[in-house]
Amino acid sequence: xxxxxxxxxxxxxxxxxxxxxxxxxxxxxxxxxxxxxxxxxxxxxxxxxxxxxxxxxxxxxxxxxxxxxxxxxxxxxxxxxxxxxxxxxxxxxxxxxxxxxxxxxxxxxxxxxxxxxxxxxxxx
Length: 124
What we know:
This protein is an alpha/beta fold. The protein has one domain: Transcription Regulator spoIIAA. Helices cover 38% and strands 31% of the residues. The chain is built from three helices and six strands. It has helices at residues 34-49, 67-83, 101-114; strands spanning 4-6, 14-17, 22-29, 55-65, 89-96, 119-122. It has a six-stranded mixed beta sheet, with helices on one face. Helix 1 runs parallel beside helix 2 (67-83).
């Protein structure tokens, strides 16, 4: 299995989902069709979770998410939680600028929706 890597452009984030269990989404997510953009990642994620990883560390450092990207990110998080298995240690981290309280609120909204703790860190 190979790592899943996508470079950032004007409307899509950088994505690095590594087979080591280190996951990262960084930047802006406002693709024309969020489902078409994220479906290959969801397929990769399903295959990866079948390997029963011991840990997943997922860092989200997003500047902007359109509404359809929010829905897909919730789907990604729920998929990880539901399919990872009891023996997988899950760590979700939401990074935000110290003066961007809207981003912090959005991260807290994700935490509430998925019912799993998220660590909140100010970007350095």
